[in-house]
Specification:
385 residues, alpha/beta, TIM Barrel, Sulfite Reductase Hemoprotein, domain 1, five-stranded mixed beta sheet, 15 strands, binds iron/sulfur cluster, IspG_bac-typ, isoprene biosynthesis, 4Fe-4S, 4-hydroxy-3-methylbut-2-en-1-yl diphosphate synthase activity (ferredoxin)
Length: 385
């Protein structure tokens, strides 16, 4: 039981599958994924984009394979990147087989759309032979005709039925290494479909609000929809869909997960909106500070507050705190305690220095703890011999 039960999220129990080396479902951390928007056949541009995506912290990347050349390009792409690739296929079963043969770790394909039973069998065989998992991706905008006729319009029940129909095909082929998504651009529809699916099966769920819009509107819409799902424990892997740079999608996904304490990565800055009481330019400081701290991956909290109204209280809860004081004499807090004052100095440069020092200290402690654990395990193994 946690000390603060109001912060506890009980995650839905789901089966564990793998996308390459990344576990999805079970007790695995909720993985973050995005999708490239380069031409897959332009290997150089695609690899460069994936490397930026990796640096932003993505665990998985999806790459479109609309033609044979793209599916074959995966061979070279996957050699030059560190994170596993989900090949986005849609209809053509041959592309799925080629992608599996050329390094994809997961195939995004709906078995009900592949065609004949022979083709489904061949795709499943390729997935099994090459250690690929599959994502069934149901989309409200492309529901099967019979379901639209049965239900009259895209609705949660139709989406769940579609997902379970596809799932049954894979189950019939003794293939259970799959995850499912039921996306819609309508938040109500997407949330209700995921809630229904979460009740109906224990497969891991890839959650997302599809075609959510541009950076600002899409972030808000995704945060509402995915926030509701994550808060209720639903979701094993997440993609935020934005008409924006994929790196933004990764950053937004992390902010969501960080807000709900589901993942921790990098510096979380807590800052006030500023007002006439501010003793330094809070907005400008935070803007530059966030850019200069983007390289830090160690989880840490930093509060940057314009004056003493809320500064000391926020600083108590953060690793490093900064509160504006009169006459340009600001207060710096370390581990919640007042530590030193800062007068007429470069605030951002000072805080970046403190964060880097703290990050190095945390990483060194982690490495030391890992070394001690390894020594203990080695000693236990020796004793057992
Ligand atoms: S903490 Fe101070 S400066 Fe910031 S918004 Fe509140 S009163 Fe204004």
């Amino acid at each position: 039981m946690t000390v603060r039960p109001y912060r506890h999220i009980e995650r839905r129990k789901s089966r564990l599958i793998h996308v390459g080396k990344v576990p999805v479902g079970g007790d695995a951390p909720i993985s973050v994924q995005t999708m490239t928007n380069t031409l897959t056949t332009d290997v150089k541009a695609t690899v460069e984009q994936i490397q930026r995506i990796e640096q932003a912290g993505a665990d998985i990347v999806r790459v479109s394979c609309p033609d044979q050349e793209s599916a074959l390009a995966l061979r070279q792409i996957t050699r030059e990147i560190a994170i596993p690739v989900v090949a986005d296929i849609h209809f053509h079963y041959k592309r799925a087989i080629e992608a599996a043969e050329n390094g994809a770790a997961c195939l995004r394909i709906n078995p009900g759309n592949i065609g004949s039973a022979d083709r489904v069998r061949d795709v499943v065989k390729a997935a099994k032979d090459h250690g690929c998992s599959i994502r069934i991706g149901v989309n409200a905008g492309s529901l099967e005709k019979d379901l639209l006729e049965k239900y009259g319009e895209p609705c949660p029940e139709a989406m769940v039925e579609s997902a379970l129909d596809h799932a049954r095909i894979l189950e019939d082929h003794d293939f259970l290494d799959f995850k499912i998504s039921v996306k819609a651009s309508d938040v109500f529809l997407a949330v209700a479909a995921y809630q229904g699916l979460a009740e109906a099966c224990d497969y891991p769920l890839h959650i997302g609000i599809t075609e959510a819009g541009g950076l600002r509107a899409g972030t808000v819409k995704s945060s509402i929809g995915l926030g509701m799902l994550l808060w209720s424990g639903i979701g094993d892997t997440i993609r935020v869909s934005l008409s924006a740079d994929p790196v933004e999608e990764v950053q937004v996904a992390y902010e969501m997960l960080k807000s709900l304490n589901l993942r921790r990565r990098g510096v979380t800055v807590i800052s006030c909106p500023s007002c006439a009481r501010q003793q330094f330019n809070v907005i400008k400081t935070v803007e530059v500070l966030e850019q200069r701290l983007a390289h830090i991956t160690t989880p840490m909290t930093v509060s940057v507050i314009g004056c003493v109204v809320n500064g000391p209280g926020e600083a108590r809860e953060t690793d490093i705190g900064f509160t504006g004081g009169g006459s340009n004499t600001h207060q710096v807090y370390i581990a919640g305690q007042p530590d030193h004052r800062l007068k007429d100095e470069d605030i951002v440069g000072h805080l970046v220095g403190l964060v880097e020092k703290k990050a190095a200290q945390i990483e060194a402690e982690k490495a030391e703890a890992a070394r001690i654990e390894a020594d203990k395990a080695g000693a236990a193994a020796e004793a057992a011999e």
